[in-house]
Every structure is written in structure tokens, then in C-alpha cells.
């Protein structure tokens, strides 16, 4: 077709402003992080001096970060390990909450589906910070959580929930991120062909066996996607631990990055931490892509 | 009571454990917010116990209410301003990018698609640090503050427009614009007369999503803020959430929530109307709730 080549240039031209925007405000800034991490610090003002030339990169900040990450008991390793376990536990709990809810709405929503979905979408329009504020109100020493627990008799004295407790931080993470996992799970579970389940039942499977042998394997890609969707932002979270605990005993990688970047001192160390975090997340993403491909292959073969 | 007992013991009904579980989940997710809203109407200074009803922290108090404390009212205005800018810039930019990336087959198309999807999996703290450092060290003609924050919101939300519009484009297929081209339309005419009218529901939906992302955004707004004057509502909640002596911060959060919900509901009704006019069928809420599930397919 004679016009097709000219047409392609038209479509490329249409994409151009967006591509230029992402180059300028996404790729270039990522390069600047690397240049700051591998740059030097002004000896007098302590401001970072980014090194734009890769041949002159100074690996001092990186060595400092990597040494602390790979020495057992060192500060950054403690924080990395803690972050990993917080994210692991919070993601697992989120899945335990999200899957049954998504499954129920997808399979049994019936005429209530619209209303149920509105309830699931609502948290998207309530700012994350307001949802944390709500828990700060509830978890105060004289807050309603303590009131209820004292009244039932679970507690003898009010507990300081906001005073450096890992459990408060993890439950805050679950509360904050679980809505982002439910909707993609729902979207996927809703598309599972019901006739497959009927076939399984016809062939003699119990309802539980039908779930375990048909629904669960079919929803594996969605479970993996849901895990990635909430685990990635959790690894960069610093506001949840800060608001619900504020203690260095519960600080995550995000807290360290925030302290180094916005605290003003040793910005290259903060930038190096960001690069280390990004590399770690890229490894996770690589694992995700491989396991999704494997899950899909298993479904076909 | 008897009906409840019958429902519980009916073996053919919906799985009772799941009904209860979902109900409890919804209560757990919504009730804390309602309680936070209730405290914003407190007459006293407590943010953890109910103390009567008043509008003191909205407008009544001469110094500490949202209306009279400039630190609180500017935050609300800054959030609204940024959301408006984000919607006005991101939607046209993202629609053009989505159409271009979906139809463009030549060299560079694959890379461009990969770059726009990469923003989706980049944690906000990475993007916030990156933009903060680029504005301080390289693009110094953009000072920290409103413009920098707007750039951040646009960059962060662009990919969601691409996902929503791309999903719609794939559903439409290339036939309509090919027919328009066969009938003698230029690519621009085919786009304007055949494609864009069919994309209207997706455009409205992406405007709502960009608006919600911008109102909710905290990390980028904080990293790129130049000080109290450009703090948004979430940034203000963050800096005073633990230490605030009065429920005025609850009142601020409630006002931001009310504004977001009103815009979202109006946007949703508009979206449902244009969708129906374009022949959309089935449950509106169903389609709306799964708009950005496209990358899973």
C-alpha cells in the first residue's frame, strides 16, 4: 500500500510529544540519579556535584552503601532485611484478604455486583494519607481500638499502638494496599469460564477440588500480578512506617532514602540507595516475568 | 432473626463464609474513614474521642480552622490546582501517545512502548528522587514548586491514560479508520472523524483516573514541594498527622475527600452517559472498576 509508510510516520509523530516527555522527565532523571550516586560532594557546601561523564565516575558512595548492605549486622542490611520481611508478610496477608473478596464478588456478586464493586473502588478516591490518618485517630492511647479491646477484656491497660510496633506498620500496609490487589484479581477471576467448573463438577470433583484444580491454577497469573502491583510500591514506602510508628526500629528502605535525599547531607548515598533498590526490584520483576511465562505455559500444555 | 437463621442454614445459598468475609472487609475498609470524618465535626480538641458536633474546625475557629489557617486552606487550593493542571495536560498528551503507540509499527515503536510501561512499575520514591535531583542539578530553569509538582503528576499518571485508551483502541480494531482512509480521508481526518468520537468514553474515564491519582499523590508532591506554600493536602496530613493538636487536619482531609468524590461521581455519570451514547452495554460499574486491568490480559 503506497500510503502505509506515510501513515506510519503520522502515528509516530502523534506519539512523539509523549515519548519526548518521558525521555525528558523519566529517562533523563533516572540518569541523573546515577550521576549523583557516582558523583562527588562539594567540599565546602556539602552539596552533591553530579558527574555527567561515565569515565570519571567515583564509586565511593556505592562502595559505602554496598558494604553496609552486604555486611551482616550493618545498618543498611538490617533495614533491607526488615523491609523485605514487612513487605513479604504484608503482601501475604493482603492476598489472604484480597482473594476471597475478589472471588466472592466475581462469582456470587449477582444483583449486588454493582454496589459491591462501588465499595471496592471507593478506596481509590480516598487519599492514602487520609486512610492512614483514620488509623492514627483510632490507634491513639485513648482511641477507640483501645476502648473496644479494654471493654471486651482482651487488654488490661491501654496499649501504645503508635509507638514503634512492627504489627501496626504491617497492618497499616495491608490496609493501605489491599484495594490495589482486589481489583486486578477481580478482573481476572470474573473472566474465568464457568463451563470449566461445571465440567470439573460433572467429572466428579467436589466444589473444593474444582476450586483447587481449576480456579486456583487459572488465577495464578493474576495472583502473581497482584503481588507485584502492591509489593513494588511497598518497597518504596516511607510514610506508612513514619505515621504509624515513627521509630527507627521500624524504618524501611524508603525512610533511609528519604533521610539521605531530603535531609541534605550525603545525597550521593541516598541516590546510591535508590539505584540499589531499583536493581533489586528489577531482579524481582525478571523473576515475575519468568514465572508468569511458566504459569501460562503450564496452562496451555 | 428467623430469616437470618434460615439464610445461615440454607445449604444451596451463596457460600456463607465468603458473604461474611466480604461484608467484614467492606466494613473494615470504610468504617475507619467514617470515624475520621466524624471527628472532624468534634466540638472539642480531641481527635480520638467523640466530643459533640460543630463546624468549629471547618470555619468556626478564628485561628485554627481550615478556613482561617492559611497553612490548611492553601494546601486544599494547591491540591485542586495541581489536579486541574494534571488532567488538562496528561489527557491530551496520553491519548496522542496511546493512539500513536498502538498504531505505529516502525522502528522505535517497541522501545517507546517499553518506556511508557516502565513508568508503571517504577516506585514513586524512585520517580520522586529522580525528578527532585533533575530539577535541582540539570533542568534548573524549572524551580521546585507548582510547575515541578505538575510535571511529576503528569509523568506519573501518563501511563494510566495510555493503558485505558489502548484497551479501547484494541477493542475497536483498525477497521474503522481503514475504511475512512479507503474513502479518501487523510490520517488526520481518519483520526478526528472516525477514531476520536469512539474514544470519548475512554477519554472521560482517563480524566477521572488522572484526577484521582493527582489528588491522592503524596510522594512526588512532597519531594518537589518548595515549602509550606506548595504543600498539598496529603503532604499537610503527613506533616501534622501525628502531632496536630486539633481535628482541623481531619476537616481538611474530609474536604479534600468530598471534593474528590463529587468530581469522581459527576465524572462517572458523564462517562456512563457517553458510553451509553456510543452503544456500550453491560454493567457500567463492572467496566469502570476493571479499566486499568488491561496489562493483565
Question: Which helices and strands occur, and which strands form pairs?
Answer:
The complex is a heterodimer of chains A (301) and B (297).
Chain A: H1 3-37, E1 40-41, E2 48-49, H2 60-70, H3 75-108, H4 113-121, H5 128-139, H6 144-152, H7 166-189, H8 194-202, H9 207-218, H10 220-235, H11 239-244, H12 253-262, H13 267-300
Antiparallel strand pairs in A: 1-2
Helix pairs in contact in A: 1-13, 2-3, 2-13, 3-7, 3-10, 7-10, 8-9, 10-13, 12-13
Chain B: H1 2-9, H2 16-40, H3 56-60, H4 70-103, H5 109-118, H6 124-137, H7 146-172, H8 175-182, H9 187-216, H10 219-223, H11 233-240, H12 248-277, H13 284-289
Descriptors:
A: 301 residues; MetI-like fold; two-stranded antiparallel sheet; globular; B: 297 residues; mainly alpha; 13 helices; 71% helix
Notes on the structure:
The complex is a heterodimer of chains A (301) and B (297). By secondary structure, chain A is mainly alpha-helical. Chain A has a single domain (82-300), classed as MetI-like (MetI-like fold, Orthogonal Bundle). Chain A is 73% helix and 1% strand. Chain A has helices spanning 3-37, 60-70, 75-108, 113-121, 128-139, 144-152, 166-189, 194-202, 207-218, 220-235, 239-244, 253-262, 267-300, and strands at 40-41, 48-49. Chain A has a two-stranded antiparallel sheet with strand order 1-2. The longest helix of chain A has 35 residues, at 3-37. Chain A starts with a helix and ends with a helix. By secondary structure, chain B is mostly helical. Chain B has two domains: 2-33, no CATH class; 57-296, MetI-like fold (Orthogonal Bundle), CATH 1.10.3720. The longest helix of chain B has 34 residues, at 70-103. The model of chain B has no long low-confidence stretch (mean pLDDT 88). Chains A and B meet through helix 1, helix 3, helix 4, helix 5 and helix 7 of A and helix 2, helix 4, helix 5, helix 6 and helix 7 of B.
Amino acid at each position: 500500500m503506497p500510503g502505509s509508510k506515510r501513515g506510519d510516520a503520522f502515528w509516530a509523530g502523534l506519539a512523539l510529544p509523549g515519548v519526548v516527555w518521558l525521555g525528558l522527565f523519566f529517562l533523563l532523571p533516572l540518569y541523573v540519579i546515577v550521576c549523583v550516586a557516582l558523583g562527588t560532594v562539594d567540599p565546602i557546601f556539602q552539596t552533591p556535584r553530579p558527574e555527567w561523564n561515565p569515565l570519571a565516575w567515583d564509586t565511593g558512595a556505592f562502595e559505602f552503601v554496598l558494604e553496609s548492605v552486604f555486611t551482616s549486622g550493618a545498618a543498611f542490611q538490617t533495614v533491607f532485611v526488615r523491609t523485605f520481611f514487612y513487605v513479604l508478610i504484608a503482601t501475604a496477608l493482603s492476598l489472604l484478604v484480597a482473594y476471597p473478596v475478589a472471588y466472592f464478588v466475581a462469582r456470587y456478586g449477582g444483583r449486588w455486583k454493582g454496589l459491591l464493586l462501588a465499595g471496592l473502588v471507593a478506596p481509590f478516591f480516598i487519599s492514602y494519607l487520609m486512610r492512614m490518618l483514620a488509623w492514627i485517630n483510632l490507634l491513639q492511647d485513648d482511641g477507640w481500638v483501645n476502648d473496644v479491646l479494654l471493654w471486651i477484656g482482651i487488654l488490661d491497660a491501654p496499649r501504645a499502638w503508635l509507638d514503634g510496633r512492627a504489627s501496626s506498620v504491617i497492618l497499616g500496609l495491608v490496609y493501605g494496599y489491599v484495594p490495589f490487589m482486589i481489583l486486578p484479581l477481580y478482573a481476572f477471576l470474573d473472566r474465568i469460564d464457568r463451563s470449566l467448573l461445571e465440567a470439573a463438577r460433572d467429572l466428579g470433583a467436589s466444589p473444593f477440588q474444582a476450586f483447587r484444580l481449576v480456579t486456583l491454577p487459572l488465577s495464578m497469573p493474576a495472583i502473581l500480578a497482584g503481588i507485584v502491583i502492591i509489593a513494588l510500591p511497598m518497597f518504596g514506602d516511607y510514610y506508612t512506617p513514619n505515621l504509624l510508628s515513627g521509630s527507627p526500629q521500624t524504618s524501611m528502605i524508603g525512610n533511609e532514602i528519604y533521610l539521605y535525599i531530603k535531609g541534605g547531607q550525603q545525597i550521593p548515598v541516598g541516590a546510591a540507595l535508590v539505584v540499589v533498590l531499583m536493581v533489586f526490584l528489577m531482579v524481582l520483576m525478571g523473576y515475575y516475568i519468568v514465572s508468569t511465562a511458566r504459569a501460562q505455559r503450564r496452562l496451555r500444555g | 432473626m428467623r430469616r437470618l437463621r434460615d439464610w445461615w442454614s440454607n445449604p444451596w445459598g451463596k457460600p456463607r463464609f465468603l458473604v461474611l468475609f466480604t461484608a467484614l472487609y467492606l466494613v473494615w475498609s470504610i468504617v475507619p474513614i467514617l470515624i475520621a470524618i466524624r471527628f472532624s465535626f468534634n466540638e472539642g480538641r480531641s481527635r480520638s474521642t467523640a466530643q459533640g458536633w460543630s463546624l468549629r474546625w471547618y470555619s468556626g475557629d478564628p485561628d485554627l480552622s481550615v478556613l482561617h489557617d492559611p497553612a490548611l486552606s492553601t494546601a486544599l487550593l494547591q491540591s485542586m490546582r495541581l489536579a486541574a493542571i494534571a488532567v488538562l495536560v496528561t489527557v491530551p498528551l496520553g491519548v496522542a501517545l496511546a493512539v500513536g503507540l498502538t498504531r505505529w509499527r516502525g522502528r522505535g515503536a517497541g522501545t517507546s512502548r517499553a518506556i511508557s510501561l516502565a513508568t508503571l512499575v517504577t516506585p514513586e520514591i524512585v520517580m520522586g528522587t529522580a525528578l527532585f535531583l533533575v530539577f535541582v542539578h540539570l533542568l534548573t530553569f524549572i524551580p521546585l514548586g507548582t510547575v515541578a509538582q505538575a510535571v511529576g503528576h503528569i509523568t506519573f499518571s501518563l501511563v494510566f491514560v495510555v493503558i485505558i485508551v489502548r484497551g479501547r483502541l484494541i477493542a475497536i480494531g483498525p477497521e474503522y479508520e481503514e475504511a475512512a482512509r479507503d474513502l479518501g480521508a487523510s490520517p488526520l481526518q481518519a483520526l478526528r472523524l472516525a477514531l476520536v468520537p469512539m474514544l470519548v468514553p475512554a477519554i472521560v474515564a482517563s480524566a477521572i483516573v488522572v484526577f484521582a491519582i493527582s489528588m491522592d499523590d503524596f510522594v512526588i508532591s512532597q519531594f518537589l514541594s518548595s515549602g509550606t506554600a506548595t504543600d498539598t493536602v496529603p503532604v499537610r496530613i503527613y506533616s501534622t498527622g501525628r502531632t496536630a493538636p486539633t481535628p482541623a487536619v481531619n476537616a481538611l482531609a474530609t474536604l479534600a475527600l468530598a471534593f474528590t468524590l463529587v468530581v469522581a461521581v459527576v465524572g462517572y455519570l458523564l462517562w456512563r452517559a457517553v458510553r451509553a451514547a456510543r452503544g456500550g452495554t453491560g454493567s457500567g460499574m463492572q467496566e469502570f472498576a476493571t479499566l486499568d486491568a488491561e496489562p493483565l490480559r
